[in-house]
Amino acid sequence: MTTLSRFALPAKLLAAGLLLAGLGAATASAADREIRIGYQKSGALILLKGKGALEERLKPLGVSVKWAEFQFGPPMLEALNAGAIDFATTGESPPVFAQVASPNFAYVANDPPSSKSEALLVPGKSEIKSIAELKGKTVAVAKGSNTHYFLVKALEKGGLSLADVKLAYLAPADARAAFQNGSVDAWAIWDPHYAAAEAAGARTLTDGDGIVQNYQFFLSDRRYVEKNSDIIRATLEELKKIDDWVIAEPKAAAEELSPIVGIPAPLLEKAIARQGFGVKPVTPEVAAQQQKIADTFLELKLLPKPITVSDAIVQVTQ
Predict the structure, then answer these.
(1) Has residue 107 been placed in a domain?
(2) Strands across the sheet with 138-141, in order?
(3) Same domain, 57 and 82
(4) Does residue 68 contact residue 13 with C-beta atoms inside 8 Å?
(5) Of the candidates 102, 106, 103, which has an alpha carbon nearest to the alpha carbon of residue 88?
(6) Distance between CA 3 and CA 6 in Å, rounded?
(7) Residue 35 sits in which domain range?
(8) Can you give the residue ranges of the Solute-binding protein family 3/N-terminal domain (predicted)?
């Protein structure tokens, strides 16, 4: 069993995805083309879904669009590797585990770094004032998420390692409940959950600035990309338009996103300001940063075998 396979994917979603994918096939037939997109309640994809622009773009090509929501990255990429979805977006750590699980896993693009959009938090009234004071304390983090790697590096900044703290592997909703009721002493989390926790009185020990890059990646299956490069290219182009709009009008983007995710617009505007936007091809420099993450998790024995990140990069051609 690989590291990634330990993340539970809801049985109904997996069964439905496998059925849609033809019991694991990665692509639909030419007569029934579609793109099934996994998204979270943050970033450009959810705004693209809300606007319906991708459906309009792909309709002349006879391509349908289906959407599936996930709470965080690892279960989304398990669904991608299982053939339940065709396109996904996550932070920098989940792809490392996903590549171990599938030789067809593919990076197709990324947004710029968002180092300030994740943080290590403590309750506002906590006596903990520094990272070093977390020794022996319980820290909540989503296993395999972007904040898992951030937590490793943040603890290093404070002279600690993962072995020096008690880890509570919790999905964001469960982690927030544990954080609020005092079951955990600290929480490594990303926006917009980070912004919401701040507004509720949480205090930041450190964000990712100067610690991690925190790229946001757009991901697919190599076989799907090879057979549907026009669909992937169109999707990335529509995402670029959304990114450009968010950069130009962050307040409007926050107001549009607010009713979708149930977070007040001012908090979302703060989260948007900390996030990098602007879809780009994955460069060798970005791949090298990902390789550092893979090597770190391998050293920690959280990754079962070494990988070469550059092997999973697919350029979307005309």
Answers:
(1) yes
(2) 166-169, 138-141, 186-190, 118-122, 203-207
(3) yes
(4) yes
(5) 106
(6) 6
(7) 4-113+215-312
(8) 34-249
Q: Is residue 227 part of a domain?
A: yes
Q: Is 60 exceeded by the pLDDT of residue 3?
A: no
Q: Alpha-carbon distance 115 to 93, whole Å?
A: 13
pLDDT, tens digit, for every residue of 181-224? 999 999 999 999 999 999 999 999 999 999 999 999 999 999 99
Residue 90 and residue 72: Cα distance in Å, rounded?
A: 8
**Does residue 168 contact residue 140 with C-beta atoms inside 8 Å?**
yes
Same domain membership, residue 100 and residue 189: no
What CATH number does residue 192 fall under? 3.40.190.10
As given in the structure block, the two tokens for residue 168 are: 């509570």
Read off the tokens for 112.
Answer: 């710029």
**Strands across the sheet containing 87-90:** 64-69, 34-39, 87-90, 216-221, 105-111
The pLDDT of residue 128 is above 90: yes
Measured in residues, the chain has a length of: 318
The pTM of this model reads 0.86
